[in-house]
Design brief:
By secondary structure, the chain is α/β, with parallel strands linked by helices. It has helices at residues 20-33, 52-58, 85-90, 101-106, 111-123, 136-140, 144-155, 161-164, 185-203, 205-210, 221-228, 245-257, and strands at residues 2-3, 6-7, 9-13, 42-46, 64-68, 95-98, 127-132, 168-171, 213-216, 235-238. The chain has an 8-stranded parallel barrel with strand order 3-4-5-6-7-8-9-10, surrounded by 6 helices. It has a two-stranded antiparallel ribbon with strand order 1-2. Helix 1 packs parallel to helix 2 (52-58), helix 1 packs across helix 12 and helix 7 packs across helix 9 (185-203).
Length: 258
């Protein structure tokens, strides 16, 4: 599918699930399904750090990108427990998730840290998949657009339009993640249209037309098509429904044809 030259994308976010052997078994099954094919949507799997090398090896020759789920902004140093962009790239990653709401809310990641991670990912040659989204309370208080604009601006502060197009944005309303409460297609489209307007405002028309914006939050095979039919929804970032290869393959097929 192409919308305004934008290629559809389906990203599996395994969170803290799967060993290297489980990642390899998932990718072997995904290969068997035949869902990943030339001309289809871009497919990415975000694996835990210890499973990245095995995932990259299993994905070899298969048109599936591998993503880290986090990175540190420094290239090396005394930062126990952290991993740099260069290390992710060396393990076979071409993408990295940045600013997922679980990182922001459970691990205290700030907009400033997200910004530094975006810069570090780009410097390491990785495509950052940057997550933004409002909480239930912020939506109830009519602050959704304020929050989205702020998170977007801070994440990409000082980024050139050219570099912006090396990034992917994911709109992930916090109230929809892991809750079963998917945003309706209208709510998702409203947020995506607003974010694309922010891109237009800051980076210009070409960037706005070419910028990939994914939706994430309780995606399932049954609700993906209606989301993808929205003009500004370019794909999905999938948590729970990405753990099973056949379910994820069904999502990839939806994005291939919609
Ligand atoms: P979910 O997670 O699909 O389980 O709601 C999405 C995400 O956190 O990226």
């Amino acid at each position: 599918m192409q919308k305004n030259h934008r290629h559809a994308m389906m990203v599996a976010n395994w969170k803290m699930h799967k060993t290297g052997a489980e990642a390899a078994a998932f990718l072997a099954r995904l290969r068997e399904t035949g869902a990943v094919k030339p001309g289809g949507c871009f497919v990415v799997v975000a694996a835990p750090f210890p499973a990245l090398a095995a995932a990259a090896e299993a994905a070899h020759g298969m048109d599936v990108g591998v993503a880290g789920q986090n990175l540190h902004w420094e290239s090396e140093g005394a930062f126990t427990g952290e991993v740099s962009g260069a290390m992710l790239a060396a393990a076979g990653c071409t993408y990295v998730l940045v600013g997922h709401s679980e990182r922001r809310h459970l691990f205290g990641e700030t907009d400033e840290m997200v910004h530094k991670k975006v810069r570090a990912a780009l410097a390491a040659g990785l495509t950052p998949i940057v997550c933004v989204g409002e909480t239930e309370q912020q939506r109830a208080e009519n602050e959704t657009e304020l929050i989205l604009r702020y998170q977007f601006e801070r994440a990409f502060w000082g980024t050139s339009a050219e570099d912006l197009l090396r990034c992917v944005l994911a709109y992930e309303p916090v109230w929809a993640i892991g809750t079963g409460n998917t945003a309706t297609p209208a709510i998702a489209e409203g947020a995506h249209r607003f974010l694309r307007h922010c891109v237009l405002d800051i980076f210009g028309a070409e960037a706005a037309a070419g910028f990939t914006i994914l939706y994430g939050g309780s995606i399932k095979p049954g609700n993906m098509r209606a989301l993808l039919e929205q003009p500004d929804v370019d794909g999905g970032l999938v948590g729970g429904a990405s753990l099973d290869a056949d379910t994820f393959a069904a999502l990839v097929r939806t994005a291939n044809v919609s």
